[in-house]
Amino acid sequence: MTNKKRDSLESAVGGRHGNPKGRFGTFGGVFTPCVLTILGVIMFMRAGYVTGYSGLWMGLVILGIAKLITTLTTLSISAIATNLDMKVGGVYFMISRVLGPDFGGSIGITLFFAQAVGVAFYTIGFTEAFFALLGIENVFIGRIVSTVMVVGIFILTFKGADVALKAQYVVLAILLIAVASFIVGGIMDFDQTVLETNLKPGFTDKVTFWAAFAIFFPAATGITAGANMSGDLKKPSSAIPWGTLLAILFTLAVYAVQLVLMAGSSSREALQTDGYQALQDMSIFFPLIIAGVFAATLSSALGSFLGAPRILQAMGQDRLMGVMVFFGKGSGENNEPRRATVLTFVIAVAVIWAGDLNAVAEVISMFFLIAYGMINLSAFVESKSANPSFRPRFKAFHWVTALAGAIGCGIAMFEINQTYAIVALGISGMIYFYLRKRDIHTNFGDAKRGYIFQKTRDNLFYLEQAKVHPKNWRPILVAITETSSRSTHMIRAGAWLESRRGLYTVAAFAQRPNEALSARMAFRDSQREQLRRQLEADEITAFSEVVVVNEFFEGLATFMQSYSIGGLRPNTVIIEVPPPGDGEARERFLGTIDLLIAFKVNMVVFKPGELSIEKRRRTIDLWWRGEKNGSLMALFAYLMTLDKTWAGANLRILRIVESDEEERAARIHLNQLKTLTRITARIEIIRSNDSPTMIIVDKSAPVADLVLLGMSAAGGEETRRYFAAMEPIYEKMPIMIFVQSNGEADVFA
Questions:
Q1: Residue 591 — very low, low, confident or very high, per pLDDT cuts 50/70/90?
Q2: I need a labelling partner for 179 at 20 to 30 A (CA). Which of 96, 241, 502, 659 fits?
Q3: Tens digits of per-residue pLDDT, 494-550?
């Protein structure tokens, strides 16, 4: 392995598991910002109001729906975050790397404005609480105070995330003391009679279930506060899932307890009239509630002020629009998004002077629901596209949860306010089509190609134009045979390697040089139908092709040149080793390899062997020699485990070395490889100076059910010598698959 390759691998491992510029861990970088944003203005200013109109049961339903949507969304965020090398941009980064820059940009812009509006939303909440304390009811002065507060937060944020996040621990302590204050007071004041009067809903024509939901939903929207700090986290792939899920669980408990205690300690009239005052009355020391309001609202505003500029900065760095490039430039050693912070400040001030708390709450609900819906859609597309590169470490995810989350967001949007929903979707749609029309060129792969892969004619034309990235690599496999009935084992092996994640064709070549064309076509049709039935009977999903030729090699060369649909042409060919002692078959086999080398495809050579039907847990041995062939073999090994024949198989990655130094280096490298590729395997290093061929026999023959070996077939005598050296071990070995990669597939993608 060259030093350049090793440095590249170590760099990739660092990017996958740890951010060298990361400053914050799970608690400080994700859990605390999420909790501070979720336990915000709604908890103090609107939870009592919602309980008064919805009653306890419907209030808990509203809480449950809100938390269900955000939990499903968090599962999607977690799946994507553990499948990407997370950088700055948070949710925008995830969506753009899955659905592409057009979708990512449309949602990134929406989410940026949602966060920027959120700054105003939380600051207005602070001002309401402050004015309620002083008994002031002047809207104009209230807007001035809110503006002054935004200026203060802007100055703090402008200095950098370090300063802002260090202050959050003090804020968290104040907030938790305030929560403890109303919980203890609520327990002391709890009255079963009062609770019974507040169990049922008291909705009106003005305050309906969905109106109450729209007011309450921002209480659940802080789940992206941690994800938006992705570029500043030490280990985003672990911090984002667990920090966010723990924050949801903790805040769910706090809100549920609060709703129960408020329903059991305050009259419905008091809750509907002034839920904030009712919370103060319930507390054991009301100044703590006031302090909690100030802390919660300002910390939530601070969280949004930190998140929004980083989204805009990431879009600017991706050069989505010319105007955004200016905001992509960072400042200082930590690349602080100060230009984007200024724009966030301007938007927040504009919103403060434009609307009241309830109106802003409805706008925020719509923006976040769109963003959450697209996050779920991103995870759904990644999962359903079945890209081999989609191997998230977060396992508590399924495409069903992503789809349910996306549908839930859509339903909630239209139930809250159809007009806002249509307008918001229209704006996002226009941004999407604008970005798509710009045909943005990026240096990152996305999952769109994997999803469109399974579409029909129109999308095939798209795929012909689309940029291919190793992340989207799939096996487009062709099995070459002369008699399909005699190659059933090889055809089955091809199905293992493709594993319904690419395209598979079984092509049978028949030499009939002296027949009329009509007779040859009739023979072709009958043989093709026979092959189709054979594949169907063996439950193999593959295209069947029969090519009638004058001469085998000429026909094969023509087939390899012409067999494609648009951009979908074979990238891998599998052939079978000839039977021992069959000289004619051996020459044809070697000639086939020479011909395929010219087409620069991946070559797979199959050697049949015994495969026990009764064996429950099989073993695959992968003998690692280098990155090029090894990468493709690792991908094939992963794909094979997706087939029912090899489900749950043990994968061993083995390497032969000759010295202590080589052994240490190989162990480090292969362990990094296992971590980076997200493939479960056992590493074995064999130190020996014996013949590699005999070592393979000694180690694999007694244990393995299938052995993957890299080969270097340059053609001619070199290929002849290689397989001549291998022939003596065929009888001792199980199924063997020799692999030569053309370098397009990359298991690290």
A1: very high
A2: 241
A3: 999 998 888 999 999 999 888 888 999 999 999 999 999 999 999 998 999 999 998
Place of tokens 């969280």: 303
Nearest-angstrom CA–CA distance, 599 and 504? 18
Amino acid occupying residue 174: I
Q: Rounded distance, CA 622 to CA 321, Å?
A: 46
* Element at 549 (helix H, strand E): strand 543-549
Which DSSP symbol is given to 698?
Answer: H
3-state secondary structure (DSSP) of residue 19: coil
* Strand 706-710 versus strand 735-740 pairing type: parallel
Give the pLDDT score at 457: 60
Tokens of 488: 């059933």
* Whether 519 contacts 507, CB under 8 Å: no
Three-state secondary-structure class, residue 158: helix
DSSP structure class, residue 28: I
Residues 522, 509: contact at Cβ < 8 Å?
Answer: no
Instruction: Give the dihedral sign, CA 404/409/415/416.
Output: positive
CA dihedral (710, 712, 716, 717) in degrees, to 10, reads -90
Which pTM does this prediction carry?
0.65
Q: Tokens 């594993």 — which residue? A: 499
Contact 308, 119 (CB under 8 A): yes
Rounded CA-CA distance 104/311 in Å is: 11
Tokens of 655: 């390497």
Which tokens hold the place of 205?
A: 């024509």
| Separation of alpha carbons 425 and 345, rounded Å | 25
According to the 3-state scheme, what is the secondary structure of 599-644? Answer: CCCEEEEEECCCCCCCCCCCEEEEECCCHHHHHHHHHHHHHHCCCC
49: which 2 tokens?
Answer: 């109001």
Instruction: Note the residue count of the chain.
Output: 749
Adjacency order of strands within the sheet including 619-623: 543-549, 503-511, 476-481, 572-576, 602-607, 735-740, 706-710, 619-623, 650-657, 682-687
Structure tokens at 552: 């085998």
Task: For residue 351, give the nearest of 151, 143, 157, 156 by alpha carbon.
Answer: 143
In whole angstroms, what is the distance from residue 314 CA to residue 327 CA?
Answer: 9
Residue indicated by tokens 């966060």: 115
On whether the CB atoms of residues 34 and 175 are closer than 8 A, the answer is no
CA distances from 51 to 67, 181, 206 (A): 16, 19, 15
The rounded radius of gyration (Å) of the Cα atoms in the chain is 31
- Six token digits for residue 281: 């009355």
Residue 47 three-state SS? helix
HSE, CB side, 13 Å, CA atoms: give it for residue 524.
Answer: 16
CA distances from 687 to 13, 729, 732 (A): 26, 21, 22
Angle at which helix 357-385 crosses helix 418-438, to 10 degrees, equals: 50
Q: Residue 22 gets which letter from DSSP? A: -
- Whole-angstrom distance, CA of residue 381 vs CA of residue 432: 17
Distance from C-alpha of 39 to C-alpha of 220, rounded to nearest angstrom: 8
Contacts 24+ apart (CB under 8 A), 679-683: 679/391, 679/634, 679/637, 679/638, 679/651, 679/747, 680/651, 681/622, 681/637, 681/651, 681/652, 681/653, 682/650, 682/651, 682/652, 682/653, 683/652, 683/653
DSSP 686: E
* Residues 382, 386: Cα–Cα separation, whole Å: 7
How far is residue 262 CA from its own chain's centroid?
40
Instruction: Say if CB 313 and CB 328 are below 8 A apart.
Output: yes
pLDDT grade for 52, boundaries at 50, 70 and 90: very high
- With CA atoms as reference, report the closest residue to 360 among 201, 623, 31, 125: 125
C-beta separation of 87 from 444 below 8 A: no
CA separation for the pair 237, 227 (Å, rounded): 10
pLDDT tens sequence across 183-213: 999 999 999 999 999 999 999 988 999 889 9
Distance CA 598, CA 660 (A): 40
Quote the crossing angle between the two packed helices 627-640 and 660-677, to the nearest 10°: 50
